[in-house]
Amino acid sequence: MSDVMVDVRGVHKSFGPLEVLRGVDLRVRAGEVTVVLGPSGSGKSTLLRTINHLEKVNRGWISIDGELIGYRRSGNRLHELKEKDVLKQRTHIGFVFQNFNLFPHLTVLDNLVEAPVAALRRPRKEAVGTARRLLARVGLADKADAYPRQLSGGQQQRVAIARALALEPKVLLFDEPTSALDPELVGEVLDVIKDLARTGTTMIVVTHEIGFAREVADTVVFMDGGVVVEQGPPSAVLDKPQHERTRAFLSKVL
Ligand code: ADP
Ligand code: MG
Prior knowledge:
globular
């Protein structure tokens, strides 16, 4: 596949004696949405964190748009990149967390402007223009001067998504983006993600929202015990799961 955007090959990750990822393979094509499902503790967050090198891998490798993440190859050895180069790579990988992680002391607008100016050296005026356009896109044009604490959880998460987009990432990673929200606020955040899916943003979304997966995912990946148990289109994995562990999980969440 020539249009693979995210390539995860044979990734192993341990924390001390605990092997959390036990050989994960995953390929995400440009413009596609992959939804990752799996029980708590199956390694979903750790997988996302290895993709932007918040965690080092013990074995295997990850590339985005053909570029190794966190390492450079020399002969058949991998050498870890310097922190500065890792940070540069990370600007291409948007990450949206369960708990929003906005900068509380900055206005909504400045939350979106900070990284493009500091990390990408964009002129502030240009970054402000982009930020306003993105806030309009997530329906929050009127909140530019508010502080995060003045917003609902759903609004904060929409700001977090706009902030991630401000760096024009090659891929957006979402770790349970609606799990911390009151039920009535889940829909507005999923609607923003759906809109991104329609416009061809490459995304990996960890979520328990099965309806969302069915509607939006090109590929559903079911993880358990640090491995990908099965993957395929939603119609296969959700409606005709091949593995007992997938069936057992779906029977609990559906
Ligand atoms: P999930 O997101 O699927 O719930 P995680 O990737 O968060 O799973 O965690 C998988 C396992 O790894 C869990 O047993 C968790 O306790 C453990 N784990 C995650 N991060 C760390 C860490 N930094 N140190 C030690 N153990 C960790
Ligand atoms: Mg998790």
